[in-house]
Amino acid sequence: MKKAFQFLLLGLIWILFCIPVVTIGAATCAFFYVGIKIQNNDQDIKLWKLFIKGLKENFVQGLLMELISIATIGGITFLITWTIRSDQSKFVILLAAGVALVILIFNAFAYPVIGRYQNTFSNIMRNTIILSLTYLTDALRLAGILVLEIALDVLLFRLNLWAGFASLLFWPSVIFYTISFKISKIFYKVEHPKTYEEDTPAETPSDSSATE
Length: 212
Description:
The protein is mainly alpha-helical.
């Protein structure tokens, strides 16, 4: 219950700092900077103070990631819209769905990696790909849950417009909690490799250290 309340407040803080638009990427990184600490049961978590710290530390990389997200999500949205309206073949539709899945997984992993580790942006992109491929099963499960949550929110908008708008106050918290819950377990495996015996161990992010 305490974690749920913390994530709810964290979501409201995220919405507040997304208002300038240019800060969306950095605010998302800051959310995961704090959210993963909550999942790891870190002590004495001061949401506002930690969020501001995460925002400052990840502003530039968060902005770069935001631009990538706009390009990738905008591109796949256009592609899916085009495939539906132009009555394309099943192959093209499946191809578009596959690309959308890859983009969703990449974005779901990239922001937590930026928030958790200090690294160059190129290494962050590299490690994001490594983590998502190494833990592909977990990544696919996460993507499936996210698709379901997004679909439910879209359905709520269709059922009642006002209820849909009201849900936007809680929707980021739900989405980001889901990602934080899954990603924090992956990060733990990466940071404590001796605890787990896996056929394909994850590669620890190079030149990186957990942000204090």
